[in-house]
Amino acid sequence: SVSDRCSFLRPLKTGILTVSDKGSRGEREDTSGPALEELVKRLGADISEKAILPDEKDGIEEILLSWSESTDLDLILVTGGTGLSKRDVTPEALDCIAEKHIPGLGEYMRMRTSEITERAILSRGKGIVRSETLIVALPGSIKGATQCFEAIAPVLRHGVEIIRGWTTECGHSH
After folding, report:
1. pTM assigned to the model
2. pLDDT value at position 169?
3. d(CA 86, CA 164)
4. Cα separation, 68 vs 51, whole angstroms
5. What is d(CA 156, CA 75) in angstroms, rounded to the nearest whole number?
């Protein structure tokens, strides 16, 4: 029967954190956070948490620790703070809370998006694991955030499934 061959995907409890000084003060509309919210739903995500914070390392660390440990999210997407300015501290915040680094996510985002703009290689997007939560830092612009997300989207669900122990096979595609 069809039901013997059908499997259902678990919803991914997801948080979206926008890191933006101007956005947190209401001086700029957050466009990248809502765009990522729509894109991640295609992976079967349920958005459980959303926030906008200023570019402050301690605040970023605090909310990511809370969301990954207390709220028990499967996936957190962070948009903003991955550039080169003095205020861009998202990668440093992720480094401070990381239990594992996933260098391939950042490398692949830069590789794929550098085909569109050479400035992509200046982005410091990355992926880490904390408390069985996959956390991905993406650029703050809507264009950069969505292009980077789309580059890695095909592997995000599988990454969460491995981290969570929902599956143990990583050597083949489904």
Report:
1. 0.93
2. 65
3. 35
4. 14
5. 9
